[in-house]
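#lab-general

N.A. 3:47 PM
ok so I finally got the sequence cleaned up, no stray characters, all 296 residues accounted for. can someone with queue access submit it? mine expired

B.Y. 3:52 PM
send it over

N.A. 3:53 PM
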Amino acid sequence: MSYTAWILLTAALVGLSCGMIGVLLILRRMAMMADAISHTVLLGIVVAFLVTRELSGYHMLIGAVIAGLLTSVLIQWLQSRGVQGEASIGVVFTTLFAVGVILIATQVGNAHLDVKHALMGEITFVPWTTVRLPWIGDIPEATLILSAVLLIVVVAIIAFYKEWKITSFDPALAASLGIPVIVMHYAFMSLLSITTVAAFDAVGAIMVVAMLITPAAAAYLWTDRLSVMFGLSGGFGVGSAVAGYYIASWLDTSISGSMAFATGVVFLLSFLMSPKHGLISRYVTVPARKKATSER
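B.Y. 4:20 PM
back already:
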C-alpha cells in the first residue's frame, strides 16, 4: 500500500471504532466523558514512560487504560458524594490532565512526548513505525493496534448487544432483569479507554473527541434504530476521516484538525437535512401540518 493509503486506512479505523463507541456515549448521555478520558490518558502514558523509559510498547496502552478507568472511578465517586455530574467531570479531567502536563514539563525531558503532540497527534508519522506480520509483510504499528481494537469493539457490541441496549436506555429495568449494570458500565469505560488510547498517539486528543461525539450525534438525527445508528455513526466517522485528509491536502494544514472539522460539517448537514429531526424538514413539515389541520 502507498504512504497515503496507510494514512487513510489508519484514520478510517479511528473513525469507525470511535464512531461505534460514540453511539453508546450519546445514548448514555456521557459525551463529556470522551473529552475527559481523551485528556487524562496523557497521565497514564507519561507515567508508563517514566517507569519504562520507552515511548512504544503495550505498557503505554496499559498505563493509559488504567488512567481512563481511574478517571471514571473518580468521577463516579464524586457524583456519589453529591457533586454535580458536569462539575465532577471537569474537576477530574482538568486535574489529571494538568498533572500529566506538569510531568512532561519537569520529568520527560527531550523525549518525543509533548503537549502539542498529545493534543493534535501526527498521523503523517504513522507509516514510518512498522511491524512485520507473517504472509502480510510490513504494516504500520498504529494500524495494527487500531485494527485489533476495532475487532474488540465490534465483538463486544455484537456479543452484548441486548445488554448495551437495555443499560443505555433504562438502567433500572436492566437491574431488575438481573443485568449487572455496574459491570457493564466499567466494561464500557474499558472499551472507551482502549479505543481512545489506540487513537491517541496517531491523531491526538482533539480528533478523538470529535470522532467519539460528532458522528454519533449526527447518526442520532437520522435514525431511532440502534443497529442502524451504529452503522451510520461508523460510516460518518470513516467519511469524515477521508474527507478531512483531502481538505488538509488542499489547504496544506493539520490533518487531524481537518478531520475534526469534517465531522462538524457532517453534523451540520445532518442537523439541516435529516428527515425527522432536521431543521429543513421541520420547517417544511410544520406549515404543512398546520395547513392540513386548518382545512379539516
